[in-house]
Design brief:
alpha/beta; four-stranded antiparallel sheet; 15% strand
Length: 394
């Protein structure tokens, strides 16, 4: 790829003649970003590595892989964008009409006779570049998430399919990360759609800032994201996931005076030499790992919460001493038995004011902590906690 980013449409012109390459570049360079290749093999390498190429002009007769061979590779490519690229065949053969028919039958988009190159090259380039630009815009609109600008689920799966095919074909590594916002479908949902969108956008921006140019990030569901990292080592992507979690943990949303911390769950899977069969298979494996990680986190939080409650539980009040009352007067039927605790009010049979206030205060504090934790949990985690407490309490 070129080191500098250009706003001009990128065109690849292929020919084994240096004179033709210079001529084509001179005609096109005022309006296009032109790169060249000397044969079909050179051109294919550049097409695989540079997704910004939008139009291909190729000579037919070349050593090695000729124009027909290059056209076949393009039309059979795994990448849908590459497969649908406009390919304009160029020839100086005497029997140009026969070559044109053969090229069009094999999938060429257009055909130019080299004898008319100076007059026809620029208009054809303009027309095909405009068509390709409009096509890409339509594709982008159908594969982007409107809120975050990341790929939507369909767009992400389509790109992941390309990454898996490339990893398998070139025996390269590929890693996938799944990210999910804790409690977004319950806690934040109850507060309002506007808050949900703020949280989702914040996480999307964190992800966008961390991914590489060759990575693809997509929004999967309400609060879920996925990242495809071609050539990424699993250990390295796991380290990036941990950094993302720590960065998110520093963020606390203040909503109506209540503090809501941003908690992310992550999972990473890797496949050396493209071991997955389909994008759906890869996503399912990653989702299963994410569910396991979330369950471990919920169980650890439940244990810590139970320990906190046990630590905060007040010490039992000492058993009141039963005083033996030596009656100096005869005990009547209305008199209180000598075994009655001193702290009982005989008139109302209720605890005296203030006697149980410390117990109530400690109980309310523990209840408040429990409710705060349960408020931050989803329904599924709450059910798991209930099952865990029932098992714990026998």
């Amino acid at each position: 790829m070129n080191g500098e980013t250009s706003s001009l449409t990128r065109i690849l012109f292929v020919d084994d003649s240096k004179v033709m390459l210079k001529t084509a570049s001179k005609i096109l360079r005022a309006e296009f970003d032109v790169i060249t290749a000397v044969d079909g093999d050179d051109a294919w390498s550049k097409l695989e590595l540079d997704p910004d190429i939008q139009v291909l002009f190729t000579d037919i007769n070349m050593p090695g892989t000729d124009g027909y061979g290059l056209l076949k590779k393009v039309r059979m490519a795994d990448d849908p964008g590459l497969r649908g690229m406009p390919v304009i065949m160029v020839t100086g053969a005497d029997d140009a009409e026969s070559a044109r028919v053969k090229a069009m039958e094999r999938g060429a988009t257009d055909f130019i006779d080299k004898r008319a190159l100076s007059a026809e090259l620029l208009p054809r380039a303009r027309a095909h570049a405009k068509y390709q630009r409009m096509t890409r815009q339509l594709q982008a609109q159908s594969t982007l998430d409107p809120l975050t600008g990341l790929a939507n689920e369909a767009g992400f799966l389509a790109r992941l399919e390309q990454d898996i095919s490339y990893a398998r074909r070139h025996a390269q590594e590929l890693a996938i990360m799944r990210v999910e916002i804790e409690g977004l479908s319950t806690t934040f949902q109850d507060i309002g759609e506007g808050i949900v969108e703020q949280v989702v956008m914040h996480v999307a921006n964190l992800i966008r800032a961390r991914i590489r140019h060759e990575d693809t990030a997509g929004r999967i569901g309400l609060g879920g994201f996925a990242i495809s990292a071609p050539g990424g080592h699993r250990q390295g992507i796991e380290a990036e996931a941990a950094k993302l979690q720590r960065q998110a943990a520093e963020i606390v949303f203040d909503i109506d005076g209540q503090a809501f911390p941003l908690v992310l769950h992550t999972a990473v899977i890797g496949a050396e030499a493209g071991a997955w069969s389909t994008p759906q298979d890869a996503m399912l494996r990653c989702q299963m790992m994410l569910d396991d990680e979330r369950e471990r986190t919920a169980a650890a939080a439940a244990r810590a919460h139970v320990e906190q409650i046990q630590t905060a539980r007040p010490a039992p009040e000492p058993t009141p001493q039963i005083a033996q009352i030596e009656a100096k007067e005869p005990v009547t039927a209305e008199a209180t038995p000598a075994t009655e605790p001193q702290w009982i009010d005989r008139r109302r049979d209720q605890p005296q004011p203030g006697a149980t206030r410390p117990i109530i205060r400690k109980t309310l504090n523990a209840l408040q902590r429990s409710l705060s934790y349960l408020w931050s949990m989803g329904a599924k985690q709450a059910r798991r906690l209930a099952r865990f407490l029932r098992k714990l309490l026998g």
